[in-house]
Specification:
single chain; Rossmann fold; alpha/beta
């Protein structure tokens, strides 16, 4: 079974465009959507509404920076601090071009930082290429067997 792609996005327009781009890339991976940082961590930790989901990490997390409840930086910090999640590929997919956001993301171990293109076709192509690379071409690290703390 293919691992899902976890898309963490609160903007309805960006969410719709990203889902469209992923579907056009003809990836077979299912896409799980979280609309805020807390929901994303709940999914990853199999907590709350996700307590009964099948265990296992996604192939990649496409993470927006500006999110309600917990922002992308806080989510990234939590992922990198958790032994069972720390090796997950995380791509910051954001509209922020601020250097401080870029530097902070890389300091915390983000795998890639992609600024959302403003043009519709550019956006579709960027997300399509991201999906193909991270879900198909990238060789992920083995799942860790460390227990959750």
């Amino acid at each position: 079974m293919l691992k899902p792609i976890l898309l963490v996005e609160d903007n309805p327009k960006d969410l719709e465009l990203t889902l469209l781009a992923l579907s056009k890339s003809q990836l077979a991976n299912p896409v799980v959507v979280a609309r805020d940082g807390a929901e994303a961590l709940g999914y990853l930790r199999c907590e709350g509404e996700f307590a009964s989901r099948e265990r296992g990490n996604p192939a990649v997390i496409l993470l927006d920076l500006k999110l309600p409840k917990l922002d992308g930086i806080e989510v990234l910090q939590a992922i990198r601090a958790d032994g069972s999640l720390q090796r997950l590929p995380v791509v910051m997919l954001t509209s922020s071009r601020e250097e401080k956001d870029l530097v902070r993301s890389y300091d915390l171990g983000v795998n890639a930082y992609v600024v959302k293109p403003v043009g519709f076709h550019q956006f579709l192509e960027a997300v399509r290429e991201l999906g193909v690379f991270w879900a198909v071409l990238n060789e992920p690290p083995p799942e860790t067997t460390k227990p959750r703390s």
